[in-house]
């Protein structure tokens, strides 16, 4: 048995396009997630703002594994991943947090086990 | 309908621990994947080598979305993600490539649709 943690795949619909185009707002969201889940960053996050009408990508290297976001302002969609190689994982209130930070109307969360 | 591409979740078992501890070898693997799949990097990759017996993490920001790897030398396990927001995706020969590059004995590939 190789337990390699859980990857949370979080799809966020109906978000505010203005927020999805703001690196500052997205960085604040990731900082909030990192703080609330008590994660540790071990390198500077990398960000890229794509040319209009593109969105923004942010990747954070964690001691736990990674946290990423990709935004699609043209469809109000944001794709987040949070992978933690820690064995035990409990669901988190992504829906509330993303409603508040991105204006998400609906959030779909899937847990993908890594290893077996 | 919001089509936000496919995320390939690739779990690689029975890998050579020496390779899993080599940033150089892992960087060569990701460069090979990027070349073969004709992807475009838009920022310098970020890497972190964890203290022994830890593994290595690499994150690559792509114009297509992201490519990541986390290695676990103590169990011979490597967790890769390749997310592309391009709509059409065909399965790729991860098993052959990871057998050659990491010495993987077995590779499990899952396709996770993003959006709907």
Shape of chain A: globular
Q: What is the CA–CA distance across the termini of chain A?
A: 6 Å
Helix share, percent of chain A: 10-25%
- SSE string of chain A: EHHEEEEHE
What is the overall number of helices of chain A? 3
Mean pLDDT of chain A: 94
Features:
homodimer; 116 residues; alpha+beta; 41% strand; globular
Q: How would you concisely characterize the structure shown here?
A:
The structure is a homodimer of 116-residue chains. Chain A has 116 residues and is of the alpha+beta class.
Give an overview in words.
Two copies of one chain form a homodimer. Chain A has 116 residues and is an alpha+beta fold. In chain A, 23% of the residues lie in helices and 41% in strands. Chain A is built from three helices and six strands; from the N terminus they run βααββββαβ. The first copy, chain A, has a six-stranded antiparallel β-sheet. In chain A, a hairpin with a 4-residue loop joins strand 4 and strand 5. In chain A, helix 2 runs antiparallel to helix 3. Chain A is globular and about 45 Å long. The first copy, chain A, starts with a strand and ends with a strand. At the A-B interface, strand 1, strand 2, strand 3, strand 4 and strand 5 of A face strand 1, strand 2, strand 3, strand 4 and strand 5 of B.
